[in-house]
Give the backbone structure.
Amino acid sequence: MKKRATLLFLFLCLMSIASAQNRATVTINADKGQYEISRHIYGHFSEPLGHCIYDGRFVGENSNIPNTGGVRNDIIDALKSIKIPNLRWPGGCFADEYHWMDGIGPKESRKKMVNTSWGGVVEDNSFGTHEFMNLCEVLETEPYVCGNVGSGTVEEMAKWVEYMTMDGESPMAKLRRENGRDKPWKLQFFGVGNENWGCGGSMTAQYYTDLYRRYQTFVKNYGDNRILKIAGGPSSGDTHWMDVLMKGTDNGQRWGVSLHHYTVADWGKKGSATEFDEWEYFKILHLAYYMDELIKEHSAVMDKYDPEKKTALAVDEWGNWYEVEPGTNPGFLYQQNTLRDAITAAVTLNIFNNHADRVRMANIAQIVNVLQALFLTEGEKMILTPTFHIFDMYKVHHDATLLPVDVNCMKYELNHSQVEQLSVSSSRDKNGVIHISIVNVDPTKTVDLSCVVNGVKVSKVVESSVITASTLNTYNSFDNPGVIKKESFKDAKLKGGELTVTLPAKSIVTISLR
Ligand code: AHR
């Protein structure tokens, strides 16, 4: 079959040259599904940073903006519509300077602190443990709480877990009840520190590994609650950190190891979110594709100590990072979001899907008004960014079985550099529907795609949708919020088991087949 597909592709390439058209073939191996794509790959992250929480999703109970427990209802509804699987909090760098006891009890008596990580602003602790855990219940999402290793004690971390999850009699359960919550919350994911090689304590790999062993011992399971512990892993390509951490801990001590990787053109000159030329687009795209290399490199190290892949790789911070919007606080990391971001989000999610054997959690940074956000707010107004629409489009892959794909496509080339023109992933959901997500990253060329499914007979296109725009830097603004959104796609036809698709330039398409 592979041979046939290759011959077909060679033939199509010759046709392409003759007709100056771009063509491609994809084979979906529906008979080779082995791994489940964890819905937790589609996780989110929020930190008291700029207007992510305050004046972002959290407006307070007394706001005129409709809210539930102080959180904007429009954002709650939108997050429910994309089936948000988990939400990470309170950081980020902030997590390692956060002392949770400052954020419980009557709001007027909560201790104020200086947020030294982000803009030196006063943090009044009005959004604390109760507000976060209650929000997760409203959203029907799993909370992912990150504990303080950098400046906190083992006792403080142990008591936090007891406070959140202990039923029955205990000092922390009593305190929680005094603060108005009788039953414990369910807490599945707990991170033991954040970026402890940097803002989380400037530690060496060995020092953190030793601390991790100690701290995680006191992250206990109370009653039926079962915590999945996530060790603070490396930054980008630091395989040494991964090696030391994996070697110094065992599968019983960690459910996952985190990896942080942001897509940045150059830390000294990050470039504008909205004003960029084709070469700047290409560079960000190239860096987004690099996530695949990164996962392979870290997986190879993890395989040495955990060949059965019991430990998850949790890419719990990722996304595009540009200069802040002109005139905004540099410590608040506020940036717009264009079709370029939708394309790189889709490429990255395809990479995560295709590494479902090892990557079982990921969190884009951050949910509202910070970096590659899903939502931007301005007073009462709220807009859904192009990245939001990708998460909406890709929710079909949650907990579906990954179907490996063989892709034959041309390259998108610029200045003697190249990337694959198409990025693809496919899955089969619990109802037997096959979904294929395809990104045509080429900004000018349409691609005629021929796709076959091995192992099952498909006879119907159930649904298909597209996200695209006239230019790469098109974005949704407060005056014009609906420029980019998910739209119905008409150019997918199924005949005799062969799916033919005309993929517009710079587009993301998802097709569902039965
Ligand atoms: O997401 C912004 C920051 O980036 C996080 O606080 C930190 O963990 C990372 O360096």
Observations:
- The chain has a mean pLDDT of 96.
- The two ends are 21 Å apart (CA to CA).
